[in-house]
Protein: Spermidine/putrescine ABC transporter substrate-binding protein
Organism: Bradyrhizobium yuanmingense
Amino acid sequence: MISSPDGAVTAAPLRTGFRWLQLGMGIVCMAMIANLQYGWTLFVDPIDAAHHWGRTAIQLAFTIFVVTETWLVPVEAWFVDKYGPRIVIMFGGVMIALSWILNASADSLTLLYAAAIVGGMGAGAVYGTCVGNALKWFPDRRGLAAGATAAGFGAGAAITIVPIASMIASSGYQHAFLTFGIAQGLVVFVLAFFIQPPRLSIPPKKKQLNLPQTRIDFTPPQVLRSPVFWAMYLVFVMVASGGLITAAQIAPIAHDFGIADTPVTLAGFQMAALTFAISLDRIFDGFGRPFFGWVSDTIGREPTMFVAFGTAALMLLTLSAYGRVPVVFVLATAMYFGVFGEIYSLFPATCGDTFGAKFATTNNGMLYTAKGTASLLVPLASVISTAYGWKAVFVLAVALNAMAALMALLVIKPLRRAFIHDQEAERTDKATGTAKTEAA
């Protein structure tokens, strides 16, 4: 073990195979925290049936979890920069296990909300560290690396949705919380021992005209003063809000539509519409994150955003109009999550391209807090649906995604290119001026 220049206590050699191993372990860790967000919807109605707290009150726990998960990431990223990723991920493993243990015994909303805070701290520690580490190991393939890492979070729940649903039905939601919580936390804790940052800065292989990347490492205070960061933040909030609402409310939506238990047959498989939808959602979400990351490495970040956000708007519009048809519900939600999850690969990659690799963990952590901001709309969706129906919620989400698609091309793209060009030109001018002064 050696200390790296940025203060990390662990380091790893620059071997090509080793960095892919690091990526793989990060993906597994992300898969272990996926159920804290994407498996939550399965527990909402069973918790309500047991305690009669109401969906809105229970969903507040989801919002608390997401806010805690995202808004504390910059703080956790600081610990990563100072002490390395190992200790932060170990902490995350303990906290995610403790969270579901508390959920299993929660007999009041206060304890349920406390468990959400604990889970948010743990999930944020794992998420922010793994994505930041991927950006540092793969500056030449940031979109793919961030997408693959985020895919663990997106698809990690796919293989456990059916077992969790079955365990809830057979043994109760408390037993499901306890069993899966301990197992997930243990896997993360063990893998934390082997995760390390790169020893040296790895430069991009080549400069691409459609993929502008800065050669300057901007500090977090500099990033917060840049207009392009806040433009990215706003678009992130606009897109994330619809996805978080759908992820948290998909079970209540299916029940209100009267199709949750309706059998659906696709490609030789038959399942209840809700279980089928959630399972396909996780698969499509997981596939979409690295796929769109790879696409963005090829054609550019903003054009990829435009295609993804536009498709998301179309799928939400389809759900609004035809969501009560079970097959349409399953396929439309799958397609929606297939293009929604890319925000967790595109925005980290765009952040790294714009602000550099040295402080990538902290800078991306600040941008990731947009997810927490967006989560504040999740309880509001329950209120709107009660007053005006789910169609009103879908229409609002369609409008936000359509606006975000246009802003990606018309606002973020020109702002980002101007920022990179101006900052590098300023640095060149200062270097030239210094050289002339020394020569004189």
Summary: The domain at 17-199 is CATH 1.20.1250.20 (Growth Hormone; Chain: A;).
